[in-house]
């Protein structure tokens, strides 16, 4: 774990409960950012050892290959293990330490909707709390690294069911063909998973549908934890107004 | 009604049910945009003739003076009269014709929350529908002008009660002192109104509170009708994360 | 307008604001029911004369052809005209008279979500009210026909944006290949529309995505106006639990 | 704990935090299903030892008697004890093991609404997560039994306050007099509880009110965790449309 | 229509779309207030002429008898007729004139939930807007009477379905036996209606259920249009905390 | 910790996660009640040791000084420590014991909204559950003190973000100048905190804004956990109806 930053830009930090969650939930967004020269770093919180398909070793390899395809660095951490995650403060402190080390501007985490794989919503909550703990100056476990305030936390949804109903989404345009191609390859790199179920088709159908809503080719919906602050109304001048 | 555009930028179009609604609801946002060189045009749908204070003539003059202070052009139209507005299709077609004439990128309209002055929510609905009618090619009343698709419709809230609870707000940073000054002058120009009630204090308190949420001086919350579409996560890298 | 019923089953009655709304919003559901031998009848409330593409005559022909492909009968009625619909009581009484004549068990209408083509939400509200007026015995305009209480009103959504967020959907399984084929042909029959925009792809992507949620090929989400009443928990023993 | 199944039908599995929760929350539904010949099994997660009335021994006896009246088998398990339940993953794994053993089609659990007895919402969340864990092939604690995917999870509400506001209910018709009688007897069997408070009247009033909504004698509202999937619109042709 | 006020207290003003709506929706609350010596006045906006049972003449007589039992004065006004009500501004102005004449502190109106008899939600909206128009000083139709600001507008729900889900209810304790008796008599006075359907049982079941929630005999839920303002936390020291 | 009660009135009990939460979230309400002669007692669940500013010793002193200014007694308890709080049942039992000892009528706790300092929402949930445990007669840890049922639990919000969106607020009028003065002094007593950030301005702006909504000077919004039960509609005859 040495040099994470590949550019001078403030990096993007994405958390996944399992080796493939980031790719299926928002891999196209990652590809879009790294393609534009920004650094991205993945933190994976289990080896997927409770899943029906793939061994921990296979899944680790798949995740590394996939992150490389997306141009992201990757690390694995131990919390409670796959399907055993609890929303403990100790975990939030651990993630806060990573935030202080990586010093990202933007974070990505699984959504808080509870009706999905239990680890997803719990990790989302742990990350949300970690972004606050990373800011508090008196936390003795984190004394060695200076506090870090991030700019924004976005949630991704691995399935339609996991999309929050109480936050207005923002859609990220990932229409450039090379982005969709890289994303598809990154998903396909999780071969133990995609062999068994049609995850790739699910995600591309979701992205295509979001693209049709916006009159573009493909888009991924993300859900900001806090209201966006804009310099001007003209800072974002596109919306979903096609049908 | 000749030259509306003061610059080559796609103009901003704001609708108000009464002569002072735009100023009280989002005048700081207008000042912020015209200060940056963008054109803004106001369409006022009554002379405030049912209000407790001020004559129609006074209120028209106040609105003109206020628009000039904000750097906006202004026109008055007749719908059903103050406190008499109905959400008729004929009105939406009338506003759609204005949209086709002005050809704005961004629209501002009062929010759809019904628990406020009845004209506000109705005008919001008329504007929302007008943005669609402006796009439909076969509408015979609008045959003379080519269809126009806007980029985004934002709602403003004249009071706290009028803030929608089902749309995540975006906050527009209006912290530059000259912006707040111009906005305050524009509100004060409605002297028949501000003499009777503490509207200016209300709006500045709201803007200060939004500013405190975002760690800046002042901000105004707007509510996008449709999800924003971004090129990149880094297109908007600020959020309300201060407390 | 003679014999509507093709079988002894209580018929299905579907309302559309424009000649293609039923097909795009829930055509697969119609095909599924007529394929099972149930009668379906369409009531179309405009000729699409305000749309960008197609003449009223063309669109009428397209709708007739499409209804025939789906095995449904069809009639056109005049309300206020395309893009001019108002939610008048007189219209609800007119539709209530149709309900009393057709005597359906189940109704389909566009959803009440207002952020879509203005005619859609208004027609949905008119139909909802009409189902009540059809039941009231003292309505003098309807004196000639006996009151009729329907069993259920389902809303369909022509776009993702039009899906209600405050009603839990039910998914109708339309996975049989012949159903999807017939539905696709029926949408394609609206050739003036599908030439200009990728409506068919939009609807098939939505249906495929719903199918993936449920572990089946294709499904269409409908939104019941009133809680379902079941004889037993085992009456419906399938749900979306695949991802 | 030997032969649970009394018929060839896929059994119904109901979880209760306390000895009387299933009966008060949805006993009429149980009676309705067992009366139709389906097997039902209860899992009770405490002896009610923190309650104001009744000893653990009494309450165990009451629950056994009540289950017998309803035609259900019953077992007691130890989690954290009455009023001490925590939503631990270890508990979800324990319940997942029961799901794999009983292999039910339909599950009943207390609702997730937090403003009720704390054990209820926590048990609801544990059961919801357990239904997912029961499906995951790699969970080493459950290695001995094959994965099991259920058809549907319904929540019951022990009080009006516990009814979810974000899920559309389905109403189960329990109007047959023998069903209401059996249910009433089953509630009365919890004599230590009903002596102190008017629980029976509360539940019958709720069921009668739901019946009146649907134009029938009595009904119980349940809340599906996931959207229902139907073969046809005509699969459920009744709704609450009486007033 | 001469002396409405029977006491020096600021009167209560209740609006009903049909001759029996106030009684079924909140008659117990009326009885509770008049019993305490407060004046109540009813404004009925149709003769129920579209209903299945009862002639306009019968229903007028029933309403008069029922109001007398409740200790309220009553007047009938003409809007659009039963089942024909539209939410017109002209109606709101008409009701605002009544508000200025009666000068009430508290208003009661049917809830805004649209999935009920169409006249109910429309009347609720008309009343809500009328309370604002009654305050505006420049409205020329109302020039003769001085503006009147009410203290609070409460909505009542004629059925369970009509209870708003986005407003927290307040429960009014109507447990005194004489109150329930008077209320029951007032409902029974609508003999043309109660002969045909079990309305009285419906309302008493709802009130009993609300009473059980609060640990009292009977209560009626009302829904305040605007947040309550209290002098002290101890001004209302009871809540629903019994189960 | 001897004589808590200063009057014969049932006391008010307020819980804070950190030494300054009660003051910033609802200090004006406390001042308002003690000014009227009611007893108030604070329970503080950490020494703020994870905060950026102030030592635990300083913060303890500040809290004591502030409570004294507000006329409240204060005690500190140990749960998991600042920024380490978990929503454990053991904590709820500990707080239930305090409730049984203090025997309050009204409780104040931080809101349940999760997007704030993690300790706040967790403490809110612990208090909510504690109010139920305090009532259960069989809880062996609490055997020594008789059960206690409170009248109402109100939530306070330390920031705008922490205001619940699913509960209608009640506004407490704190307009008397001496109340605002005392409150301001009590906030200022937390000098380690207010030196670093503009908390006092934030809270006064919020209270002023709520005051403007209600046409009074200052008000604080609280959120009742359970519906209020009123003797009469006239028990609370004020609402926010000024703009």
Task: Give a short overview.
The first copy, chain A, is of the alpha/beta class.
What attributes does this structure have?
homohexamer; 243 residues; alpha/beta; globular; disordered N terminus
Question: What's the number of helices of chain A?
Answer: 7
Q: Structural class from helices and strands of chain A?
A: alpha/beta
Largest interface: A-B, 47 and 47 residues
Strand content of chain A: 15-25%
Oligomer: homohexamer
Low-confidence stretches of chain A: 1-8
| N- to C-terminal distance of chain A | 47 Å
> Could you describe the largest sheet of chain A, including whether it forms a barrel?
7 strands, mixed
Strand count of chain A: 8
The mean pLDDT of chain A is 93
Order of helices and strands of chain A: EHEHEHEHEEHHHEE
Form type of chain A: globular
Estimate the helix proportion of chain A, in percent.
25-40%
Any idea what the radius of gyration of chain A is? 17 Å
The strand line-up of the biggest sheet of chain A is 3-2-1-4-5-7-6
Walk me through what this model shows.
6 copies of one chain form a homohexamer. With 243 residues, chain A is of the alpha/beta class. Helix content of chain A is 38%, strand content 15%. Chain A contains 7 helices and 8 strands. Chain A has helices at 21-35, 56-70, 89-102, 118-133, 177-188, 191-194, 199-214; strands at residues 12-16, 40-44, 73-76, 106-110, 152-156, 170-173, 219-224, 228-230. The longest helix of chain A is centred in the middle third of the chain and has 16 residues, at 118-133. The radius of gyration of chain A is 17 Å and the shape is globular. Residues 1-8 of chain A have low confidence and may be disordered. Chains A and B meet through helix 1, strand 5, strand 6, strand 7 and strand 8 of A and helix 1, strand 5, strand 6, strand 7 and strand 8 of B. Strand 6 (170-173) of chain E pairs parallel with strand 8 of chain F, so a sheet runs across the interface.
